[in-house]
Write a structure and sequence with these properties.
CATH topology of the largest domain in chain A: TIM Barrel
Oligomer: homotetramer
CATH superfamily of the largest domain in chain A: Aldolase class I
Largest interface: A-B, 59 and 59 residues
Chain lengths: ~350, ~350, ~350, ~350
């Protein structure tokens, strides 16, 4: 059940949360951006709740992903450090797959920033298919990321792999990444829900749109409204690509959810020569940003070299992304209303 | 084996074809666009062929889809009536899923044309999942398409469903469409290979990039070099969409083949509210055009209403497509070389 | 609409077909096996039809695949020559992927028969991914199949690839095979519907259960009730197998359709060392038979060698299949009723 | 690198582990069942290791899943309490999806046992798609499982969802289950590797055979050789089933790995009426056992009712499973050698 209340209806808020607690139901809320608050309760409360002072409306026939849905609020934005995702300007996250060393990372971060990146990505805890592969530098890598932030001013996003790491990673990073393999690791999602840091939630290899948004709902229902979705390719039967970037999900999500969504054309193709075009396609599909693997020497990157581009390539992509985004904004202003009406 | 010969090397050409015939091997050729001709032979010939007068080079380690590959020639264009596909300007094919009636079709064609369409699409022979569903108007529908061409000047593309229909459909249409369900109907592909009309080859629901191009190769190897590919969505496990438009295939094809490729965001999503964004994404991915289902009253279309948009919506999409295409062209001129070099 | 009539209600039958014809609706019928006839009409007729003399009942809320469904009749059997498929004893179809030559085929047929095969399979018209690959011996191959039948007494099943070949192939073969790539080649299905020969319909690589049965419905609605389904593997993202044999479809089909269904563990795995176990699994899942690629020298077979087993391996599989089938029959007699009741 | 040593070569063993430690490489070992020990090292050691006293052989060209592979040892068995999985007799795990209450569970356990179950399954920590759904009774549920073991003597298997729960769950359960959604939750796998309890590893919805075995390798490389694999259905595009049980994986795994593998026809179909046949098919494919959801009143089960069968249905399945297993064993004895030789 969704209950919209006036921002200052403190007593009613308390009462509602109490009613939820009595039923052992989860309760979470989100600022609607229009001067009110939307509360999601995990179970239907007595409909009399509608008559409480300050209650603006109740919604009962909402999507299963209640607080993540457009039933809860209009398009939301998420701030990562001082970078805002979802405000109309594409945000570029870039960096190496794995953090390799302090000085290398700082140099890479500067190159990525010069190429147009606003958020630094890089893995300290690395989920690797083989137990014998390099598993990341761990906390040492987190410190290197913090140093790179210090050196560039860019906020950093990095992966967290288990509930117990959330506090540790939150101590260094500006945004927590939940990887594809953990999209339905519900205990990790709950722990991220209890963090104050925004979360980048990557879609599972074969997750449906509904499952993807239910995972976002987990984080939000446990207290953290700052979720950014990331499409990163699904598994299909075509060996021409490591994964197939599924851009349907971008307008598909935006038709039902207020959450920002970005696109990762590096994992979504697995081939560096396709990153450029699929980055442009992602933005044209309506994505709020991109996550791209960049390394000054892709062939010698510690991991994922085949899908990693150079800072130089990134610079050109970013320039085209912004040109494309601007022309889409210009043409949207006059036309979108008409389109929607006549669609 | 690919053998490139000078355009005027008639005797050598005859000799090569004779050698192929002696081995019961298919032989087909394509104009390279650079003053020479590329001949594909289905089996390796004696390497001495390289020394024949007028032979420029032989290629033996080519892709399995030899004549469709970049080993055979650089990016090709295909003319449909006087509309050229593949020359840098996106081509818009639009029209109803099914031809419904003569006057209705002419009216629809005019609306589509006014909205920016250059090629009229519409089904006379309709592949329907149920034997009890409307199967199309058949030859009568072909005549209606011809009438709509007469009335608008737009060339028409329509589906052909069996080898024996190729001649009939070629008598009315400007381009033959091979539907997804028939992408690996090899006898149909052979018959299209013997036609003088260009062919629009739609990708099968679960076809790989290699299988898609091998089907194009069938048409080309049997004599028809004028093939345009069409991505129209693959089947995945996500019930949120009828199909998932797979844009990886666009730059994926362009990395190995010279054939033009267009995108069908109507079938590729199954939902009309997603057509707009996925059309833009297709163009940003590098597609040479779009195929879109348009009907003045989608809810009452004879088939595929759920994924059909109005002419008004089409007009807005086309305007944005051209704006986007222009900005991509402008930024490409200076940057593409650098990108490729540094990717 | 399904209309069940008494077997001898000739006048009513004529009247119903007339009513269907007046509405341009397809009409087809099937013997129910219980002394009546079930007529399927492609459109709902006037409900007064129920009151016609000899009409036993009408069914309006049937599956979309009306005449293929259990709404039309109980489990059916299909005779191929004098071999009956669907009567409780697994039927073994075996033979080489491609017909290679007359004497070789006769020798192979004898070996397969000695190993327990009852129906000879082999391709004369071969759908090959590459236009440059061997495309089969064509009519010559059909003659070789007829010769092998002569020599062994085994009926033969072979693929038909286009509507125009149906008559030709029917002249030689005892059963027509529609390949996976043509499962939704509706014109071919219609032509098979007009043939008097039984049809083996192979499931498409990514066809759903509903699409599979709708393709059977095409054949039946066009006049041919003798359809046997064949599961042959679906495409998934796992490169460990060429295809993944989907045995869910066996009990899944049997829960809604009366048609016999067999399993092809050769194509369904793509690996000869897995054929044995997946053949057993198919029978345990409830399949009415198996189609297996067999060749005395698999490594030198003209096609599909990697998934082809020897006659010796076939002999052992067949022995285990029959042992397994018998024990299932014995335990079924007492238990199936209880199982169904308590499931 | 795999190094096989004599069981009593203590000094050499110590030396090898030291060499691995010096290179920061994982090292784990497994009893070969033939009087020796196989040690897997995460990195190649100096080949001189072969000359150490007691070293029987080294294997360098092993599969990526070294210690899980047949390169490490022949078919292994795993004991759960006093039930042995992998010794030729199918093992039946059964029980409710969710533990619902103490008395109910004990009653259900007794019914399952009477029907032929040897291991009790049931969820205390439940991974649910919605954060608002019942998440299981947690530790209370574990206590109920322990009580049910007490009452029946059956060992219990139950899911563990995060690394920190491993110790807790190990305190109550006889076998730890890693769910499909966590198959690539590598930190959880590592924690299970440090446990002394055997692990039931369920395959991810879209995991490849290689990824599945790499996840087993994680557990084994971190110290726990007692892994049982479980196929439980993959996601495909067919809405007729919740998942598609992929039985290819059974002989596929057995061709490369020594680990036991069981099959879950409940999740693998999502439909209770298909469980019976797919259980039989799983055993015929060669599975070492079955995991089946059973509840005395499936329609009122707390979760997964649609795929849950009654104890009565289970009893009949178990009876047929054993009949089938026996006939397979009898026919295998004489024939398997010949089959393998001629395959």
């Amino acid at each position: 059940m969704l209950i919209e209340i006036q921002a200052n209806a403190i007593a009613t808020r308390t009462r509602i949360l109490q009613m939820a607690a009595e039923q052992n139901a989860l309760a979470a809320s989100i600022d609607t951006g229009t001067g009110s608050e939307m509360i999601a309760i995990g179970t239907p409360l007595d409909p009399m709740v509608e008559s409480l002072s300050g209650v603006l409306r109740i919604v009962t026939n909402h999507k299963a992903f209640a607080i993540a849905s457009l039933d809860a609020r209009g398009k939301s934005t998420v701030a990562v450090g001082d970078v805002v995702i979802g405000n109309g300007t594409p945000v570029i996250m870039a960096g190496p797959c794995s953090v390799e060393g302090r000085d290398a990372l700082i140099a890479q971060a500067k190159l990525a920033q010069a190429a147009g990146a606003q958020i630094l990505r890089g893995g300290a805890f690395k989920p690797r298919t083989s137990p014998y592969s390099f598993q990341g530098h761990g906390e040492l890598g987190l410190q290197m990321l913090a140093d790179a932030r210090e050196a560039t001013g860019m906020p950093v996003v990095t992966e967290v792999m288990e509930p117990d790491q959330v506090e540790l990673v939150s101590g260094y990073a500006d945004m927590l990444q939940v990887g594809s393999r953990n999209m339905a690791n519900f205990n990790l999602l709950k722990a991220c829900g209890r963090s104050s840091k925004p979360v980048l939630l990557k879609r599972g290899f074969s997750a449906t749109l509904e499952e993807f948004l239910m995972s976002a709902e987990y984080i939000m229902a446990h207290g953290n409204p700052n979720v950014v979705l990331c499409e990163r390719g699904i598994r299909t039967g075509d060996t021409a690509f490591r994964f197939n970037l599924d851009l349907n999900i971008v307008p598909g999500v935006q038709a039902v959810s207020h959450l920002p969504i970005i696109v990762d054309p590096s994992h979504g193709t697995g081939r560096r020569e396709l990153v450029h075009r699929m980055a442009l396609a992602g933005i044209a599909a309506g994505a709020d940003g991109l996550a791209i693997e960049v390394h000054p020497d892709p062939d010698n990157a510690l991991s994922d070299g085949a899908q990693t581009i150079t800072p130089d390539a990134l610079r050109h992509i970013v320039r085209r992304v912004h040109a494309l985004s601007e022309v889409l904004a210009e043409t949207e202003i006059e036309e979108l209303g008409i389109l929607e009406a006549s669609a």
